[in-house]
Design brief:
Length: about 260
């Protein structure tokens, strides 16, 4: 117990967290969908903050091209062709063995989405495509779990919190999933590793606030440009005719029949 207090002493000293907030973190389970650039940075921060349990979900393996921005991986993982979730678990266990890590080396899909997030109190978006984000959005609405959208490309990024049954969802912001074949990607436009860390840090800060009970704040879309050092913030309103969060018309995930 003394060792735990010592480890998080600087965090206990924060008036916004304190010992009771630390206890809440320890009792919380967070699911991270995607264990690449954003997901690995999120996991790193959460484990160091003392989160009780992490659920990591990713189907990919570590490659050399990942290393400049995916903070949990190194050359050994590339040589061993390690699944990202297993490489992340190994590194996170070394950081703090008290955090329980569940690693699922699988694609987040309509068939397994609800099962994978069943134990989570909160979901973090660590993905790089809108179809998976819409799947997270629908799974969150069905289960009532909050989730935090995050995206990064080039030197820019965006973050938004989604609180099911309370505020706008991703579909309120983006009514139709964009054509992935027409969107720029990290492969085509590149990505600055500092932009990744900025977006992931804001996602984790927002997740921490939710865990500590701050659930009545306005839903804001934050647009970040790390190169220019600017942040644009827009208040997002719920679409009263949203096909997803209002009419429960789920196009990416069919809920189980009861």
């Amino acid at each position: 117990m003394a060792d735990t207090f010592s480890r998080f002493a600087r965090q206990h000293a924060l008036k916004v967290i304190g010992p009771q907030g630390q206890k809440r973190l320890l009792e919380t389970t967070v699911a991270i969908v995607g264990c690449g650039a954003l997901g690995s940075a999120q996991a790193n921060l959460l484990v160091r903050a003392g989160i009780g349990k992490l659920i990591l979900i990713d189907h990919d393996t570590v490659q050399a091209v990942d290393l400049h921005r995916q903070i949990l991986f190194d050359q050994r993982d590339v040589i061993e062709e390690m699944p990202k979730v297993l490489a992340a678990k190994r590194r996170l266990n070394a950081i703090d063995p008290q955090t329980e890590i569940l690693a699922f080396h699988t694609r987040f899909s309509p068939q397994n989405a609800l099962e994978l997030v069943a134990e989570a109190d909160l979901i973090l978006d660590g993905t790089d495509n809108f179809p998976t984000r819409f799947l997270i959005n629908e799974a969150a609405i069905i289960t009532g779990k909050p989730w935090i959208y995050g995206g990064v490309l080039s030197v820019q990024g965006s973050v938004m919190t989604v609180l099911p049954n309370q505020g706008p969802c991703l579909c309120c912001l983006v009514p139709k999933a964009p054509d992935c074949n027409k969107l720029p990607t990290c492969k085509s436009d590149g990505v600055l590793n500092a932009a990744v860390m900025w977006v992931a840090s804001l996602q984790v800060a927002k997740a921490t606030k939710l865990i500590l009970g701050h659930t009545n704040e306005q839903v804001l879309l934050h647009g970040l440009d790390v190169w220019e050092g600017t942040v644009r913030t827009i208040q997002i309103s719920k679409n009263p005719d949203c096909p997803c969060c209002v009419h429960k018309n789920f196009q990416f995930l069919q809920p189980p029949l009861h």
